[in-house]
Structure formats: C-alpha cells, structure tokens
Amino acid sequence: MPGCLNFLHRGSRLEDRVSENVKNKIERLKRDIRFHDRLYYVLSDPKISDKEYDVLLKELQALEDKYPQYKTEDSPTVRLSGGILKGFRSIRHVEKMYSLDNTYSFDEIYSWKDRVLKNLPDGKISYVAELKIDGVSANLTYRNGKLISAATRGDGQTGEDITENIKRVRSIPLTLSGDNLPEFIEVRGEVYMEKQSLSNLNRQREAAGEPIFANPRNAASGSLKLLDSEEVAKRRLLFYAHSLGAYSGVKLSGHFEFLQKLKYWGIRVNEHVKLCHTIEDVIEYCKLWQGKREGLAYEIDGAVIKVDNLEQQHKLGFTLKSPRWAIAYKFPARQATTEVMKIVFQVGRTGVITPVAELKPVECGGVIIKHATLHNFDEIERLGIREHDRVLIERAGEVIPKIIKVIERRGKSAVRIPKECPVCSGKVIKEKEEDVAYRCINPNCGEQLQRSILHFASRQAMDIEGMGEAVVSQLIGLKLVGSFSDIYRLKGKDLSALELFKEKKINNLLSAIDASRHRPLSRLIYGLGIRHVGEKAAYVLASKFGSINKLAAADMPTLQGIHEVGPIMAESIVDYFAQPQAKKLIEEFSSLGLNLKEEAKKTKNTPLTGKRVVFTGELKNFSRQEAEELVRQNGGYPISSVSKATDFVVAGDNPGSKYNNARKMNIRILNEQEFERFLK
Length: 680
Ligand code: AMP
Ligand code: ZN
What we know:
By secondary structure, the chain is an alpha+beta fold. It is 39% helix and 19% strand. It is built from 25 helices and 22 strands. The strands form 6 sheets. The protein has a 5-stranded mixed sheet. A 5-stranded antiparallel sheet has the order 14-13-12-15-16, covered by helices on one side. A 4-stranded antiparallel sheet has the order 5-4-7-8. Helix 1 packs antiparallel against helix 2 and helix 12 (446-457) crosses helix 13. 32% of the residues are buried. Adenosine monophosphate (AMP) binds next to strand 3 and strand 8.
C-alpha cells in the first residue's frame, strides 16, 4: 500500500524531528542552568529562585533519562548522581603547587617589598591583595573548556584525584562559558565551607555522636576525601579560585586580569580581590579586613599579596617551598586575657561530665566571649587552671574558644573532680581507669533525662513532632515526665499546663505521641540511647533479634556473633538490659501499646526478601522513607546507589541517573505498581 509507505516515511522524518527537538531542548536547558549557576555563584545575582532552578534541573534530568543518548559527561545533572568511590588515585600536577611564606607584621610586608624591588630594579610594581580563605586548596584542570580532573595539593608535585567529588561542588563549573577559552589550564583555588554550614554540619555530627570538625579547613578537606559522593553533595562546599598553574592557548599578562577572565568563564573569584598600585594600599587592605573579618560568611586567616605582572612573577621565581612573588599576611590570633570566674560541670545525655569555664566577659576578635570549654579533667590538669586565675584565650576558627594557658595564678585551690552530679547529686565515677571521662551514673538524673528524652523523641528515633527542648524541660519540671514511658501516659489536661498550649497544640502533640507507638523496632532501640548503639546498629539488632525481649535476653557470645557488633557494643547492650530499670521500662512500653517487634514477616517470602533495592525518582503513594521501610519489613535491603549487587531499581517520576545505571547494568527496573505488587 503506497499510503502506508508514505506514512512510514513521514514517520521516520517525524522521529528525526522529535529527536532533533529533544536534543535542542536538552542543550538549551544545559545552557540555561549554566547561566543561572554563573549568576548565582560567580556574580551573586540570581535571577530565579532555588525552586525554579530545581525545576530546570529536574526537567533536564527527565529528558536525559528518557533519551540517554544525549546525556553528556559535563551535564549539570552529573552532580545529582551518587556513587561510591574505591579510593583516590594520585594525579601529577603539570605545574607544581607551592605553599606561601607567612608574615605577621606590616614591617615584614615592607621588607618583602624591598626584596621584590631588588630583584626587579627597573620595574614598576602593582600588587593584587586577596583574602586568605580558610579552606583546602584544589587544582582544577580544564581542557577546551571542560573540567577533566581535580586534585588536592598533596606534596605539591602530586595530589589525590578528587574529580568525582569536585563535580558535586555546585559552584565549580563543569564547562566554562564565554569565548577565547584556553586549550588547557590549571586553576587553583580554595574549597571551603561557610561558617553557618559548618556549624549546621557540626550540630548534626554531634547529634549522631560523630566527632565535630574543629575548623572549616578540616571540614572541607574531610568532605573532599569522602568516598560517598552523594554525601559530598550534601556538604555545601564552595569554591573560590585564586591561583594559576600551567596553561596554553590563551594570552595572559597579569594575575588580576587572569582573575577577571576566570569570572568571565564562569569560575568563582572572591569579590574582595583588589588591585593595588602601592604597598601602602596593600597595608590598608590588610588592616581593613583584619577589622572586618567577623562580618564575612566564611573564615579568613589573613591576606595574600601577589605581584600582579606575570612576567615579573616569572623573573622572581620560586624558592623550594614558595613563590618569591607572593606572601601571606597572617592576622594576629584572636586572643584575649580574662578571668575564670567559675568552673562549672555540664552533664551530657550519657552522663559524661564536661567542665566549662565561665569567664568574665571579654571581647575577642569582635565577639564577646563568656565561656570556654575545658573538654575534660585531664585538660584542667594539663593547664593547671583554678577558679579566679587569669587566662589567655584564643579563637581560631573554632566554634567555642579555648584556654591556651594560665597567665596569672590567683586561685587558691585546685579544681576538684565532683563526686556528685551537679544536677541530681548522683554518684560520679570514672567507669574504667583508661577512660578520660567521668560520668554521673544515676539513671534518673534530671539533666540526662532531659537529653535522653530529646534524643528519644528526635526525628531519627521515635520522631515525636513538637517534643522540642522547651516542651521537654517543662514536662520534666512539672514532673509530668520522669521516664520514656511517661510520655505515653500524658493526657490532654496534663499538657494544658504547658506554656502556650491550647487545644490545637495539645491535640497535635498527643497525636504525634500516639503515632510514635508504631515506629519500627529499630527506631525504638536507637531511641533508648544505649551507649555505642547508633542508628545503623539499632537497625541490625532489630532485624537480627526481631523483638526487644529477644534482644534484652541476648548474651555476649550471641551479640558478638553478629558481624556488625563489636565487643564494646556487645558489653554495653548487655549492661543496659541488665539494669532493673530497663526491664521495667520494657514492660511498661508493652502495656502502653508500643511496637516492640520487628514487623518484617521473615517467614513470609515476598519477591523482595533478601533483595537489595535502590529507589530513584518520586513515588506517588509513598515517601522515600516509607518505601525503604517497606523493603526492610519485607526482609530486603534499601541501598542508596546502584551496583552489580543491586537486585531491583524502583523508579518513580523523574528518576535520576541511577535509572540509567540500572539500564546499563541490566538490573531489573520496577515501576511503582510493580513495586506495590511485590509487596503483596
Ligand atoms: P598555608 O597552608 O598556610 O601555607 O597557606 C597556603 C595556602 O593558602 C594555599 O595553599 C592556599 O590553599 C591557601 N589560600 C587561601 N586563600 C588564598 C589566596 N587568595 N591565594 C593563594 N592561596 C590562598
Ligand atoms: Zn546526674
């Protein structure tokens, strides 16, 4: 039939056109996204909201998933994909990465200038003054405008290959924009974290019992060395370019010009960089920022001064360690002297007693300081601190200032380790000789109670919305709550005694409490706050034992037989359940209707039992958390990234790159209906 042929013919032309359209659309979206990245990060002048930006990104991702033939390595969606790295290879820098010589006074800056002048007798010199950002340096390599690799400084000659992680830093372009791009260029700069992001991160880490980062440098460098690139994406790392390495295919004559070019190509450069024509201007700049550093969103520890002209730089050359054409001016440490008025003892959730110095308020680097942490009693001994001593304190990027030394002994008597808890008068002991920490061992300690209840009600544990600090402290103060089980005995009229608690708030809290009765066993176990039992361990324990009673009855050998449980954790679990209070608590939980069993019906085999399942995209009927929970209940394992060991990928709307990976690896993909059928 000729008509049919005709139709076919038209059909394939139509297909070509559709595919041409898709390709154009993808290119346009990529261009738009890069344009908005540049406005946001480089020019600090966004024209769309974060939400609108996400819409563009999602649209691009959806198209790429549907037409993977058009997905490219430099697409902004690369930043959304996860992946676990095996380790870091090393990369040799084309040009060596140097460190900087430090100066600590303006006099030293003048002598540096004199040395420079001696080597450039007939030169007129301009300088570029920059902020010295407290982060970690990275070397980005672009070839023909594409980011091809990224490395840490390492020993200066070779660094570690952190390309995959650097791609998750949104302020670093994967592709340069503009024209006259260099064939090849090494761009060096600082990966850093803003003060706010760092303190948020530290708060989360503290809640999870992980060690906190002492300063932005450690945080940035720790984050770049994470093996889980999805985690890197969450860390809110930022980048400022500040130095030039090897390059070709572009003409550059000055450092300042180089920085301007970078901005034009879409690479972020600090806005406070200044071209100075005299050394006096440079000193002005250092003074200015020494005074204004507190107002910045990120930490700086000094200024960096560079000879602007590249030819002059070349003439000056390098010493073994650093360029002769640049110098760092380090701000004086933010120190102050004050008096220790009192040493008080704080009690943590696990009863650990932490000494804290209450100081006579003093200004230190623009902030009024009233407290300094002393970490533990060994620290007090090491420093020899007594109440009323005059001390030197220092803030070095840390969140809490520390005491450096005693400068005048005024206290009469040495600090005594309290024998009793300052809050509940319970007994304070060092459990083992090798421990540094002393702790209050009274299980009914008020302070510990408050912290334990907050932990019990937290989002990762029983997730009782509305049980925040203010509510919990009132509940304890009014003697309405003295244990976890009391939470489940609260009545409306009890709650009406709380500040600002009217009908609506009362009902909300009661229903939040009620809902928490049905949380999975793993969350309850985690909520108990057994020492050394984190979220993951709680999950393992819940699935291995299946009920709280079986867990409570487990002995050391049984516990240690579990791969994820070490001897310290095993001992801590046995000790916990050996307490009569723990037995009583479980009985109370049971009569108050809390779920104490793992709901996974291990005997019932579903197609998900024992399977590793990855989710991507949005499901209509479940949140991600609910879906993962269902997998667990069916005896399966929710996993975050696709690998050969993955059994199923469940794809909802707008699936991410995991979908493509699954297709490439031939892993079975389920849509939402199929997933639901598997659950039955
Ligand atoms: P340091 O680690 O104290 O020897 O200081 C040298 C480091 O300062 C370099 O490796 C960079 O990572 C860092 N740095 C921060 N800001 C700048 C800047 N504006 N110019 C050059 N280096 C900088
Ligand atoms: Zn106590």
